[in-house]
Amino acid sequence: MPAMQASSPFALEELDLARMRRERHARLQAEMASQGAGAMLLLGGANVSYATGALTLAAEEGRASHERACALVVAGADAPHLFTPFPEGAPPEARVHPPLYPELEEGVADAARRVLEALGGTPAGALAVDEYTAAMLAGFAGHLPGVRLSDAGAIVRAAKLLKTADEIECIRRAQRINEIAMEEARAACRPGARQSDLSGIFLRRIFEVGATANSVDPIWQVMPGRIADGPYTTNGDVAFPLVTSDRILRDGDVVWVDSGVLYHGYASDFGRTWVVGDPPRVSATQRDQFRRWRDIVRATLEVTKPGATGRDLTRAAIEANGGKKPWLAHFYLAHGLGTESAEMPLIGTDLGDDFDAAIALAPGMVFVLEPVVWDDGECGYRSEEIVAVTDDGHRVLTDHPYTPFE
Amino acid sequence: MALEDGARVDFGRMRAARRERLLAEMERRGVDVLILGRDANARYATGSRRLFLAGTRPFGPGCIVVRRTGQVHLIGTWDDGIPSEIPRANLFGITWNPMNYLGWIKSIDGVAGAARVGVDGMSPLFGQLLPMALEGAEIVPAHDLVHAARRIKTPDEIACIRTAIAIAEAALAGAIERLVPGVRERDLLAAFEQRMTAYGVTVPAVEGTFCVTPREANGDGAPPLRRLTTDAAIGEGDLVAMEGGVLYAGYEGSVARTWPCPATASIAASQRRLHERWRAVWESVREACRPGATGADLRKAYEAAGEPLPPFPIVRGVGLGYEPPVVGTALGPDADARWVLEPGMTLAVGAYAWERGAGGYLGQEIVLVTADGPEVLTRLSHGPLAG
């Protein structure tokens, strides 16, 4: 949907979408050159969005796969090719073609033919591809004799890692839309409301305020006091996130909220802990958990600046939590945010300390800190903060209160 | 759905029947193990209810089906949303190290010694790694196998689809209530999604189309239709194409209708004719939805009504979301001819009639193919334009 007008319900900072697409295209070109790709065919929705800026219809995976946009980036070209069923969502500079159908056998042969046609023959250098449908496995390479295929994943990951100022403003806007919708959902989070009622308020409001899409089914998980009272987990840790239903919220429920919307292809990530009540009552123990969570975030942000490593962040968070990892065993302390709701850098995963130590923070990195404080028997506190690394430190993009804990 | 007898679906029976169909296709095609990444395929095999994410996802080995043991194995750190017939031992927790997935796959009973392993997609990374875990097994594409199982619906699946359609129709009615001059297209989308949640469903099949139909051609010869909802305000006398869909128990219900703004607007004869033209196409395609008909026959039926093909497939499968057959694309009639209709298939039939200066009529109905012919599952009225 077109950019917001002067009537925006929040302060807009400078955003130039054409410049954003230009700068991303230049980054992809540079990575293609350094990795020896003559061209790159992208099928993954987040990758196509990054390479072209094309808008499409958000949908379940089957529909999104059959009605997909695909991007073809040619080394040295000034703009990408875009094959799309939604020509009205194509940016002006893209070379727009009718859609490809790589889910279908006949579509694979057609795609190979049309890619070669757009390239004007066999590319000089490899054709990098980000993924293969099952139909492509059967025949794509066979339809491209003499073409060397390579992996586009590393090219796109490298280009995406550092965000431009426009990309950061898109993430900030996505987050503001998300936060405004959450204000109304929180007001409705009272005894007797259903989880699905909160979803309804949230979904209505994000579209009213200007989201281009919703990207994840919003989570309103009622947390157990003890891990043993929740679902079985393979690792013995807290089960989160559990899928929303029409469960009725009750007085005193502790609710972990998590959601994400898209603005021009960029994801928000909202995480807060709420308490159900009219008004909600927060115990001294819960207040203490929140204070500890805030201390962990503060300690982590203190070391968040260019040159620090992911390991510096995990060390600061662990130290602030008395020597224990303050995050869920199956997740991470932090994950990157961009055209995917979780992308590089991932910090604190089971890839281990060496992996984290190899991540050097640099200006333009955007990630989400999501520490968790858990006292088994007393439940816990979880919220998320989006952080952009700047030239001399960091900027927190999340702008939302900690009601009812403050 | 809040009452214990309200669902009219035996979900346990439905899951068992699906697994049986899938294992039978593996047997028929000589596939020993399936590695499934697509969410709908994993849901078909397991019945697990997992966090919904919109859009495409990179391939990953989310679900493993073993023919010899009949067991399904899943990536999942907890058992919430996992049917009780799947033992905890068949769950493998989320990990960020792809090598851990290989170790898990190798450890599954029945994987060692498998000669043929089917996959429903592939990433370059797993394309390199999976052969290491599969010790010389042949890796074959399995989309046709899974869709052969999925395309014929059991009575329980059809009951789910009927429920999903009922919710989609009710949600569309919620959007129609908001249709007055000055409302923005995006406000109708907002109303659709909120009304959907009133029925306990929080996941749309598609973030729908709520778009004023163009009155002028766009130059490429096809009847012009926008499908991406915008900020634009809707004016008096505009014809608004509305398509929305929801997922109930994973099954899609979707519906498209076109209404004038406001509903009480006086309607020009040219606008009323659009619906008549739409109805002629719809009836022609509906009558062709019979066992033995091919996709090419459906295309012919559309064209026989004298309308140019619209900028979307005219017929496609409906089940755990959007699925084959996909008919009426630019791939042409030969590509359509490979699809043959059978009893038990559920199809979305869409059509569009457009005229310069008047606008367009978009409508979509869902049809169940039966031995006796088409059964129309959609019930929602076509509104003021239908007279």
Describe it for me?
The complex is a heterodimer of chains A (406) and B (387). With 406 residues, chain A is of the alpha+beta class. Helices cover 33% and strands 20% of the residues of chain A. Chain A contains eleven helices and 18 strands. In chain A, a hairpin with a 6-residue loop joins strand 12 (334-336) and strand 13 (343-347). In chain A, helix 7 packs across helix 8 and helix 9 (284-302) runs antiparallel to helix 10 (310-320). The longest helix of chain A has 23 residues, at 165-187. With 387 residues, chain B is an alpha+beta fold. Chain B has helices spanning 11-29, 39-46, 98-107, 124-134, 143-151, 155-176, 185-197, 269-288, 295-304, 333-336; strands at residues 33-36, 63-66, 72-75, 91-92, 116-119, 121-122, 138-141, 204-212, 239-248, 251-260, 315-319, 321-327, 346-355, 359-370, 373-376. In chain B, strands 4-3-2-1-5-7 form a six-stranded mixed beta sheet. Chain B has a five-stranded antiparallel beta sheet with strand order 12-11-13-14-15. In chain B, strands 8-9-10 form a three-stranded antiparallel beta sheet. In chain B, strand 11 (315-319) and strand 12 (321-327) form a beta hairpin. In chain B, helix 1 (11-29) crosses helix 5 (143-151), helix 3 runs parallel beside helix 4 (124-134) and helix 6 (155-176) crosses helix 7. Chain B is elongated. Chain B starts with 10 loop residues before the first helix and ends in an 11-residue tail after the last strand. At the A-B interface, helix 3, helix 4, strand 6, helix 5 and helix 8 of A face strand 4, strand 6, helix 4, strand 7 and helix 7 of B. Strand 6 (132-133) of chain A pairs antiparallel with strand 6 of chain B.
